[in-house]
TrEMBL record:
Name of this protein: Sulfotransferase
Gene3D superfamilies in UniProt: P-loop containing nucleotide triphosphate hydrolases
Pfam (any one): Sulfotransfer_1
InterPro entries: P-loop_NTPase, Sulfotransferase_dom
One MF annotation (Gene Ontology) recorded for this entry: sulfotransferase activity
Length: 327
């Protein structure tokens, strides 16, 4: 009975979605794939459909931990850090059986928009706390997340480094994945990025929304990639405190924080076999595509000074008087 009700709901949603899609502005984005504009943000058609199913059907639990990022802002790192912090009593960071030694971070913390891509009523069987990730703006999160006590961790990154990471990702991944994909010039790609036409973008609009929200919602912890790079131990303490599992003085003395920082470091994770040669943590992608340089300021190697200035201005105009800086 339940199945047939769900089938009917899925059918109706599919029809409504196709109608909606036809009505949305449509353009190729930063890495030259087609994107649709919905309520101020750009999505692939399949991502938008999944995001809408997630929005409608996800039932949050108070113990859930939701990680939110713009693509290429350090999602893989954040997933590994939060997983290691939350599960540290089960697996110490030096445990030879630690799941992060055999599974890519995207395999231990799944994206909600991927869970909902092929199934509008997925079975969430994992035991609490569930750690789940998404790239969506706050207003697209389901009501059940907004009204529950579940914790949200938002991670942002300098948009210039996001662009550069995205540019390399597109050039490395897309020719293999989509043989008909047409490369574009970096100038054209950059122009589109400055207009915010990137998957789940504009990233600065998303960051600003979560930045404002952190004041009224103590459930939101706001992190910056650059702060993680500058002092990972301090940020790990913030994460653990936010999640209600602060490091004890005894753990600090034993070096637990440093061990987690090392386990999840770019140097360590990127050299683990599963992350060098494994694939499929995100469908059709090699795990190695999530590890390139992991640095701050790599944009100087690819953006001209005038490009950098232009993007800084776009972002600064948007963030004006908000107290948030991303550059
Ligand atoms: P997403 O696009 O699926 O959200 P995300 O992890 O945000 O994944 O993107 C990969 C970026 O995170 C890469 O940045 P880069 O191109 O500037 O190098 C990748 O190198 C970086 N990254 C992945 N793991 C780590 C890590 N442990 N520490 C620092 N940076 C990392």
């Amino acid at each position: 009975m339940m199945d047939s009700v769900q089938d009917a709901e899925v059918l109706a949603e599919n029809n409504d979605f196709q109608e909606l899609l036809q009505s949305l502005p449509f353009q190729r984005g930063t890495i030259n794939l087609p994107l649709h504009l919905y309520k101020g943000f750009w999505y692939f058609d399949h991502s938008l459909e999944a995001v809408m199913a997630f929005h409608r059907h996800f039932q949050a639990q108070d113990s859930d931990i939701i990680l939110v990022t713009a693509p290429k802002s350090g999602t893989t790192w954040l997933k590994s850090l939060v997983y290691a912090v939350v599960h540290r009593s089960q697996y110490t960071a030096t445990d030879q059986n630690h799941p992060l030694l055999t599974t890519n971070p995207h395999g231990v913390v799944p994206f909600l928009e991927l869970i909902y891509r092929n199934n509008k009523f997925p079975d969430f069987t994992s035991s609490p706390p569930r750690i789940l990730a998404t790239h969506v703006p706050y207003f697209m999160l389901p009501e059940s997340i907004k009204t529950s006590k579940c914790q949200i961790i938002y991670l942002c990154r300098n948009p210039k480094d996001i662009f550069v990471s995205m540019w390399h990702f597109g050039n490395n991944v897309l020719p293999k994945r989509y043989p008909s994909w047409q490369p574009i010039s970096i100038e054209e790609s950059f122009e589109r990025f400055c207009k915010g036409i990137e998957m789940f973008g504009p990233c600065w609009e998303q960051a600003l929304e979560y930045w404002k929200l952190r004041i009224e919602k103590p459930e939101v912890l706001f992190l910056k990639f650059e702060d993680l790079k500058a002092d990972i131990n301090v940020q790990l303490k913030r994460i653990a405190e936010h999640l209600g599992c602060p490091f004890s003085p005894e753990e600090e003395n034993r070096g637990v924080i440093e061990d987690i920082a090392h386990l999840c470091s770019f140097q360590h994770l990127s050299n683990i076999e599963v992350n060098k040669t494994g694939e499929g943590s995100i469908p059709q992608l090699e795990n190695s595509v999530f590890f390139r340089k992991g640095e701050v300021g790599d944009w100087v190697n690819i953006l001209t000074p005038s490009m950098a200035e232009k993007l800084d201005q776009v972002v600064e105009q948007k963030l004006h008087n908000s107290g948030l800086t991303l550059n």
